Amino acid sequence: MKLFTTLFFFSFILIDLSAQTFPNTRAQLDSVYAQNIKMSKLYGVYIPKDIDDAHTRISQMTPPDAIEKFKNAPDEIEVCRKLHLGIGRWMIVNWNFEEGSRLSHYLKRQGVLHPDDMAQFLLRTYYRKLNNLPDNNSNIIEELAVERKKTVEK
Questions:
Q1: Which of 70, 81, 118, 136 is deepest in the core (most CB within 10 A)?
Q2: Where does the pLDDT of residue 120 fall: very low under 50, low under 70, confident under 90, or very high at 90 and above?
Q3: CA 7, CA 4: separation in Å to the nearest integer?
Q4: d(Cα 34, Cα 131) in Å, to the nearest integer?
Q5: Is residue 107 classed exposed, middle or buried when 0-12, 13-18 and 19+ CB atoms within 10 A define those classes?
Q6: Helix (H) or strand (E) holding 133
Q7: What is the pTM of this model?
Q8: Whole-number Å distance between alpha carbons of 94 and 47
């Protein structure tokens, strides 16, 4: 009975996936991107418009004790790397960095091009904001670009 229930459930998933169409050409991907960057919500999730809006959303979604722990971490880069597979991945998926969103488009115009770098950039700038550290966006962008280049060359 358990096997039947499992197979029955998965058959609906397969039927649902077969009914979806995914963009598979550059023109289709560009069209999806052009639509996404105009939207304030994608798949029911609010998309921040800029860095400050993203920081506000992170603050609203995160428990105060977790924010305090993040703020008090001794090393900006290390704590942001540790959070990458948690909140960083959440941002990449839910704020639609890979298919495009108004936030990813904003970050690309700032020079942050890769979805993983976008998440790191937002975490690092949030850490700096919480700790009243100087705005260092251009240096962070340059550091992320150098690291990305090293990763690609491997």
A1: 118
A2: very high
A3: 5
A4: 36
A5: buried
A6: none
A7: 0.83
A8: 8
